[in-house]
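can u do me a favor
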């Protein structure tokens, strides 16, 4: 393990992205997303992925300085087009729109299309939890796993994340992909370990145990068979079809020009072996860090009697709402209408995606206020009572007590932020050094 100062790692990430023309504000946000994963102990989604963000920029999957376009803006819904802006740029804008509108409407949704890889979904669901809302998001990725009964790649890892406030505890966060991730396979390959059974098969349905072979020519299997398959298909519809984008089978190239599984599988040079998973692991929870974080504590958005009104005093819905259909708020000559003039399909479909840029995807977001269901204080008491009961379950190993999803990562974040340093694994540190050489940006100085 290599220990580095958090501020030094942030400085490095911002400078690397700036070297490829990324504006300072966007570079800071994208870096914060990755550095926060290192602070939470999820280095497979940390600064080691800078190499892959640089790759996105160099091959045109991402565009430095691209401005996210608003396609539709209704009281409880926002449709956005990232236009190739680095994944976190559009994803933060989409979730923040949900948060803002949920404060007056009780709940809100957003769609985002033409988005390069967003790093990790939990970062965005956690923005809602930091604002004391429940958050959800999902996205599509390149085809990786076969449907139940099939033997060819059809659907992506398509991760999802839920985040639920649990004050004073760290929030509950569920974050996982619906099939094995290529990042985890790369780790196994680097360590010389075989694939677990049930992860991948060859074209004839025979089990594969070599992770390198599985990534190169294998077919991944969905988690929990039809359960993972079903979730993956639903996420494909929410992230792609709802966004007027093609499903992965229609968007991703096939044959020798096809990218490896997962959008993080493209190295930036012949010497780069990507480190860390490119799909969300089970259980990470992400509290935004830096100037874009949603406030917590006295500056947080109020809940309860001081909250933005719901009901007759709320921003109007119904006949007085912002119009949908032909009078909806739209931006751009190719804007997509919502309501009676919904996104067209077929030959009139929006011209984004089908012949678009490989490495861009669609995503779906939601946030809702707990006090639309019951008083927030009562809800938090109920959440903590449930967690107390779960934590009291006798563990199989007394040295490993029962924890809830997000607990360990949340405590790690608090600890690492307080001490101002993080530990990078061997693969992550190698990636940091490689991208430093490629961009001529000095790598962080290891701490002794």
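np, heres the sequence
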């Amino acid at each position: 393990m290599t220990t580095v100062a958090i501020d030094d790692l942030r400085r490095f990430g911002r400078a690397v992205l700036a070297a490829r023309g990324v504006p300072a504000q966007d570079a800071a946000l994208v870096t914060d997303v990755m550095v926060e994963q290192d602070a939470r102990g999820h280095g497979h989604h940390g600064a080691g992925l800078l190499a892959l963000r640089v790759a996105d920029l160099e091959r045109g999957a991402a565009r430095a300085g691209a401005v996210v376009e608003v396609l539709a803006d209704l009281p409880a819904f926002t449709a956005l087009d990232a236009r190739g802006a680095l994944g976190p740029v559009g994803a933060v804008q989409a979730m923040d729109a949900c948060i803002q509108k949920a404060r007056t409407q009780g709940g809100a949704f957003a769609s985002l299309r033409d988005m390069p890889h967003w790093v990790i979904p939990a970062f965005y669901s956690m923005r809602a939890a930091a604002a004391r809302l429940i958050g959800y998001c999902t996205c599509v990725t390149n085809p990786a796993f076969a449907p139940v009964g099939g033997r060819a790649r059809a659907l992506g890892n398509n991760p999802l994340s839920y985040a639920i406030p649990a004050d004073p505890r760290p929030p509950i966060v569920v974050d996982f992909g619906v099939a094995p991730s290529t990042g985890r396979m790369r780790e196994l390959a680097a360590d010389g370990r075989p694939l677990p059974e049930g992860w991948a098969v060859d074209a004839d349905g025979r089990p594969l145990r070599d992770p390198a072979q599985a990534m190169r020519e294998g077919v991944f299997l969905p988690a929990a068979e039809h359960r993972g398959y079903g979730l993956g298909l639903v996420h494909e519809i929410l992230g792609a079809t709802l966004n007027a984008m093609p499903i992965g089978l229609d968007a991703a190239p096939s044959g020798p020009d096809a990218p490896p599984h997962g959008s993080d599988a493209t190295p930036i040079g012949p010497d780069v072996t990507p480190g860390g998973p490119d799909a969300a692991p089970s259980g990470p929870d992400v509290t935004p860090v830096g100037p874009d974080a949603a406030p917590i504590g006295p500056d947080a958005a109020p809940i309860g009697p001081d909250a933005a009104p719901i009901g007759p005093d709320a921003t109007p819905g119904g006949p007085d709402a912002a119009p949908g259909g032909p009078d909806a708020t739209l931006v751009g000559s190719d804007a997509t209408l919502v309501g009676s003039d919904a996104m067209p399909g077929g030959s009139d479909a929006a011209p984004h995606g089908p012949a678009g840029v490989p490495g861009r995807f669609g995503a779906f977001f939601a946030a809702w206020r707990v006090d639309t269901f019951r008083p927030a204080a009562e809800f938090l008491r109920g959440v903590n009572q449930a967690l107390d009961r779960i934590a009291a379950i006798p563990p199989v190993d007394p040295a490993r007590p029962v924890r809830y999803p997000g607990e360990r990562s949340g405590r790690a974040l608090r600890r690492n932020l307080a001490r101002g340093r993080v530990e990078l694994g061997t693969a992550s540190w190698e990636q940091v050094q490689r991208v430093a050489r490629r961009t001529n940006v000095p790598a962080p100085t290891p701490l002794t």
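Residues 2-179+222-306+346-384+403-439 form a domain with the Ribosomal Protein S8; Chain: A, domain 1 fold (CATH 3.30.1370.60). hope that helps!!
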